[in-house]
Amino acid sequence: MWEVALAFARDYGMFLAKTLTVVVAALVIIGRLVAAVRTSRGESARLHIRRLDRRLRNLARAIEARLLGKKAWKALMKADDAADDAADKQRQAGQRRRVFVLDFVGDIRASQVGGLRHEVTAILGAHRQGDEVLVRLESPGGVVHGYGLAASQLQRLRDAGVKLVVAVDKIAASGGYLMACVADQIVAAPFAVIGSIGVVAQLPNLHKLLKKHEIDVELLTAGKYKRTLTVLGENTQEGREQFQRDLDQTHQLFQDAIARHRPNVDLAEVADGRVWYGAQALQMGLIDALKTSDDLLLAAAVDADVLEIRWRGQPGLGGRLQDWMAASVGAALHKIVDIAWQRERTGHL
Questions:
Q1: Catalytic residue among 139, 174, 196, 293
Q2: Residue 29: which domain range?
């Protein structure tokens, strides 16, 4: 009897494995076809706008609804209605202050800069006097050209006379701080990481390994410094020195940007690649106040429309199908692993 159960479990396991392999292979093929269709047709995208001031008020009212008596709650609702009516009159007269909120979570390639440029363009097309922009920034930095473009997008707001505030809750280092320093005001949480005003580059060199195995690499250039350091070729001292000069030049451009926007910062003290926590950065003049983005939003919501602006890709049918397939495969694998774990825990095959 026991042998029969073992044989059945073994055969069933093989059947399940084969079935899963076929299903996964089919989904991969379908996924690639869908991806090809999406690439050929392109994807639509659009601007998403959310009222954060209403969301913040609803959060507070959720607590008060539980704590206040019926009479007090009715009075509060009446006061909210009166405030909404007054705000509507201000909007109709074009007198209602607006705070546009952008989020930038940067990776090493500053890949979100594409969305940022659309968001900034939309705001510049609709802004009026008195409007502000709050950027919730989180980035450890990355490629120079990517973060240089991101900083330039924020500079467009400054050039148009729009007040720009950057809030750093976690980190704005290197290229992230290059973006932040463009702002009229920088606020950061007490333990946010700020600074890293420096430039770094590194690459492996396999020349000795290739030489050991008698493999030659031919590198031809037109221009003395078209290539300074390489991965496969033999690097020279002259090439290293030129590479270092390139880094120093980039570092100087970084410092020039900071000096232009924050002239009171002692660059000799801060531009050596070190980072500081928010409280230390305040003493160094790298930021202007110790606050979180939540503090700024609560303050703005008192007398302004607070609008979260976000540019998002909008996948079509192919994109939704691909997302559904990925979720389905993930759920199936999770279920299989869960069943296996349950059987192992209870001592069953």
A1: 174
A2: 1-43+316-349
